[in-house]
Write a structure and sequence with these properties.
five-stranded mixed β-sheet; Cytochrome p450; 46% helix; globular; 17 helices; alpha+beta; three-stranded antiparallel β-sheet; single chain
Length: 423
């Protein structure tokens, strides 16, 4: 057994706390053996290469998303060269089966079409205008003290209220929904899932939509309640509520990780911070490189409907794969010096942080806008931003706490110190 074999054989990717902190040694070792390789603990095939991930993302007719969150294990045995009928008959028994990311065509096509009618370019532009004022209001709460715990005092409430505004949630309900959302645990282990984890939001959005259909008003919620399917038909209230609840919840944790990683990088590298202050047009490039280097969602599962192959590796029907954009985004075959931050990386926007294909994250423009507005306003209103040594230790010997889960990568807290900008 080689050293690489021993490393992979001894580490359970889905349960090893060391890999929750830094999964990249595992990714590198497993990719060196084969970018499409079965890990030894859960009978899951790890897809760690960029091209191989694209193969899976681009073929939804072969790769079902029914287990995208649920992972390995299926309610009935999957036997045969084509298990499509079994998947279609039993997919509703899986956790998260009522949410858009787990849908396959044609259901996914119809429901995604409805989603895109909820987040129109006009609504996105109006929402971005809200972001600027909200960023200032959040910063106002801690600016004078010269310190903040970024996740709790800014990123968490900011991302929550941005999407609440996007969907037209009445501001009087912000505090109550914020309380429910912020108590949701980000940490989980393989197999630990509620069957319908967003059910507490369904009733809320059902009530909103039913009210606006009875009593239309000149507001965003009415537009959402009256949105139609692509064929012009009116969707059931239940369908709209599911889409709204998923959109409300889906981007929270991931965007918080993007914002936190970005402010950590800015706080750790004063020369980069000054460059972004002086050349604001480079902030979008900075965000793309952060998405590539510190990919918030480490991966999702897919289930093979029929016998197939990926990257030249034959896989039987019923195979569960874990497609890992966190690994693909550091594939040295696609990105030179993949573990280094390069602001001007020529192919920096080619990352898979938002997946690819029919399940490309619909909230990607929202996340990018939230990051850009946040960085702009922090740089505008703070003369310098540094990492708190009392909380995280000195440069070169930092102490950070990470979310304890395989599917998200990022810090649980980030303590910053700064000097309020004059004027």
């Amino acid at each position: 057994m080689t050293d690489t074999d021993a490393y992979v054989e001894s580490r359970d990717f889905f349960k090893d706390p060391d890999l929750f902190v830094d999964p990249h040694p595992y990714y590198d070792d497993i990719r060196a053996r084969c970018p499409v390789m079965r890990e030894p603990f859960h009978d899951v095939v790890m897809v760690t290469g960029f091209d191989e991930a694209l193969e899976v993302y681009s073929n939804p007719t072969t790769w079902s998303s029914c287990n995208t969150v649920a992972g390995p294990g299926f309610p009935v045995p999957l036997v045969g060269d084509d298990v499509s009928d079994l998947i279609d008959q039993h997919r509703d028994e899986l956790p998260f089966s009522d949410q858009l990311p787990s849908f396959d065509p044609p259901t996914h096509t119809v429901q995604r079409g409805l989603l895109m009618r909820l987040i129109t370019p006009k609504r996105m532009k109006e929402n971005e205008e809200f972001m600027w004022g909200l960023a200032d209001r959040q910063i106002d709460e801690f600016l004078a003290q010269g310190t903040c715990e970024f996740v709790r005092e800014y990123a968490g409430p900011y991302t929550l209220l941005v999407v609440a505004d996007l969907l037209g949630v009445p501001q009087g309900d912000f505090a109550r929904i914020r309380s429910r959302m912020t108590t949701r645990p980000a940490e989980r282990s393989l197999g630990e899932h509620d069957h319908k984890p967003l059910e507490y939001l369904y009733d809320q959005f059902t009530a909103y939509i039913e009210d606006r259909r009875r009593n239309p008003q000149a507001d965003v919620m009415t537009s959402m309640a009256t949105a139609t399917f692509p064929d012009g038909s009116t969707p059931p209230v239940h369908d709209v509520a599911l889409i709204a609840a998923n959109l409300f919840a889906a981007g929270q944790e991931t965007t918080v990780r993007l914002l936190t990683a970005s402010l950590r990088m800015i706080g750790e590298r004063p020369e980069l911070q000054q460059l972004l202050r002086d050349e604001r047009h480079r902030i979008p490039n900075f965000i793309e490189e952060m998405l590539r280097l510190e990919t918030p969602i480490q991966g999702s599962f897919r289930l093979a409907r029929r016998t197939t192959s990926v990257g030249g590796v034959d896989l039987p029907a019923g195979t569960t794969v874990f497609v890992a954009p966190g690994a693909a985004n550091r594939d040295p075959r696609h990105f030179e010096h993949p573990d280094e931050f390069e602001l001007d990386r020529p192919n920096g926007r080619q990352h898979l942080a938002f997946a690819h294909g029919i399940h490309t994250c619909a909230g990607a423009p929202l996340a990018r806008a939230e990051a850009r507005v946040t960085i702009e306003r922090f740089l505008d209103r703070m003369a310098d931003i540094t990492i708190s040594e009392s909380a995280h230790g000195p440069a070169g010997a930092r102490r950070y706490d990470y979310i304890q889960t395989y599917f998200l990568q990022g810090l649980t807290n980030l303590h910053l110190e700064f000097t309020p900008a004059k004027g």
